[in-house]
Design brief:
Layout lengths: L1 H17 L6 E6 L6 H15 L3 E5 H8 L13 H23 L7 E5 L5 H13 L3 E8 L3 H12 L10 H16 L14 E5 L4 E5 L4 H12 L7 E5 L4 H5 L10 H16 L9 E4 L3 H14 L3 E3 L16 H7 L1 H9 L12 H17 L3 E5 L1 H12 L15 E8 L2 E8 L29
Parallel strand pairs: 1-3, 1-4, 2-3, 4-5, 7-10, 8-9, 8-10
Antiparallel strand pairs: 5-6, 7-11, 11-12
The protein binds adenosine-5'-triphosphate and 6-O-phosphono-beta-D-fructofuranose.
6-O-phosphono-beta-D-fructofuranose (F6P) binds next to helix 15.
């Protein structure tokens, strides 16, 4: 029976991946340098990995660096024949590796992202034909931006630190990078009506205008929806579990209990903890909770003190533990020993009888992630398993690790998206709470998370 639960869960995974119509897609980034292509590629890959779709970025710049590690702007001049030859060779290597990756049965590749400027019609035609001949769909994603200040900002933010300019004066690097862009501009051709046969999306000025052409399958439409929701306004996302609950005190899982006295103390402390974490003046933050009492009670003082808008989401409710709801881990180990073991063996995929797996939770959280990408500052008060899933999306935690992560009670986690990653800071309230973390192979009620070098899970 217990393994049956696991198998059902894995089958569902197949259904989820198969929802991609079994198509294999090459997402081809298009645009001048410093238009956010690598950032979009990296985020799309993180999103796909999180929903369980095998994806890989092929960055042509990385291939080019193997033959020309630190080129000057003149290398990118279209009249520089040697430069043209080297750049073409790098693109060929990347495309060949990508096609091999799709054909490698051990990888089960579904989405490859070809990260390069792909800025001429000829180059795009060549990629399209190579992919078509290998039975791979193409989705061109062009990022257009004519905001000179933003481009300069991008150069200073990420380009002067690039391996292309390692050890060089940032000001000279920025000047050289501008010249590189000028060289690309000499030959750049935006996607136009003569390329109507391609599936494409054009993002103009960070998605303030979006043009979509010929989206054919479900996976492409999800990807396009995801990409068009991305923005780069500075913001933070705060994550907190509810204050300690009555069920937490007794070691019971699930339920809809009230918060304990200490949980109430955390709820009262939450507004000042949020301030302490650093909130820029006049920042509006939206409060999201689940529909369960313990998160609503935890956010009550925050809402009352700040007057921030508050939304309750069913999708943020705790992982449904089905027939085990209301039991302690010890009772589950006694009553359903095979299930208990099966969960330890594959915690991500194990689905409680009549309940959910972590994989199920990720699927129901997808709209939450889409909405988070569209939003600015948000504080989410939710539950242990749900918080692990949301955190894993931002910090790229692999599926086998995320269900075992420590997310202690009475701790506020502040996530701040940066150009190539997410910065994390934790703020612990000085209010004791039980630990609800459980190590693999134990059914102890209240365990402490082991130090880094003692972790078994
Ligand atoms: P290159 O061709 O040199 O690899 P790129 O287009 O890949 O350049 P990125 O390295 O991704 O550019 O640039 C990241 C910077 O672009 C970040 O500072 C980010 O804030 C900004 N950015 C992200 N999305 C966009 C966008 N749609 N338009 C303009 N800038 C963006
Ligand atoms: O114990 C608190 C709790 O939120 C339970 O309601 C839930 O079942 C559990 O944590 C999820 O954590 P795990 O997946 O580690 O059992």
């Amino acid at each position: 029976m217990s393994t049956g639960s696991v198998i059902r869960s894995q089958e569902q995974h197949k259904v989820f991946v198969a929802s991609s119509d079994e198509s294999r897609i090459c997402v081809v980034m298009v645009g001048l340098p410093a238009r956010g292509k690598s950032l979009i590629a990296g985020k799309a890959m993180r999103y796909l990995a999180w929903v369980g779709i095998p994806a890989k970025v092929f960055n042509v710049g990385t291939y080019r660096r193997s033959n020309t590690p630190q080129p000057q702007a003149t290398f990118f001049d279209p009249h520089n024949e040697e430069g043209e030859r080297m750049r073409r060779a790098a693109a060929e290597m990347a495309v060949a590796d990508m096609i091999n990756w799709f054909h490698d049965d051990t990888q089960k590749g579904v989405v490859a992202i070809l990260d390069a400027t792909n800025s001429t019609k000829d180059r795009r035609k060549w990629i399209y034909e190579r992919c078509r001949d290998a039975d791979i769909e193409t989705l061109f994603v062009e990022s257009i931006c004519d905001d000179e200040d933003l481009i300069m900002n991008n150069i200073l933010e990420v380009k002067t630190d690039s391996p292309d300019y390692k050890g060089q004066d940032p000001e000279l690097a920025a000047l050289d990078f501008r010249k590189r862009i000028r060289n690309y501009e000499k030959v750049y051709e935006t996607i136009d009506d003569h390329e109507k046969q391609y599936t494409y999306v054009k993002l103009i000025n960070v998605g303030s205008t979006v043009i979509i052409n010929q989206i054919k399958d479900y996976l492409s439409s999800r990807l396009v929806y995801y990409i068009q929701n991305l923005h780069i306004k500075p913001r933070s996302i705060w994550l907190s579990r509810h204050g300690e609950s009555e069920y937490n005190l007794t070691g019971k899982i699930g339920g809809d209990s009230n918060i304990s006295e200490r949980g109430e103390a955390y709820a009262r402390a939450l507004p000042s903890l949020l301030r302490k974490s650093g909130v820029p003046p006049n920042t509006k933050i939206v409060i999201w909770t689940s529909t369960l009492k313990r998160t609503i009670q935890t956010a009550r003082h925050l809402k009352a003190e700040t007057g921030f808008e508050k939304l309750e989401w069913k999708a943020l409710d705790e992982l449904d533990s089905g027939v085990c709801d209301g039991l302690t881990y010890e009772e589950i180990a006694d009553k359903y020993p095979e299930d208990f073991k099966a969960r330890d063996d594959d915690k991500y995929n194990y689905r409680y009888r009549g309940g959910e797996s972590y994989r199920d939770v990720v699927i129901r959280l997808e709209p939450i992630i889409m909405e988070l990408e569209r939003s600015e500052n948000v504080i989410i008060v939710t539950h242990q398993a749900v918080l692990r899933c949301i955190y894993s999306y931002f910090l790229n935690v692999p599926q086998e690790k995320s269900p075992w992560m420590e997310v202690p009670l009475h701790t506020l986690i502040k996530l701040t998206p940066r150009a190539y990653g997410t910065e994390e800071k934790r703020f612990k309230a000085d209010i004791p709470a039980v630990s609800t973390w459980r190590g693999k192979g134990t059914s102890a009620k209240h365990q402490e998370f082991p130090a880094e070098n003692e972790k078994g899970a």
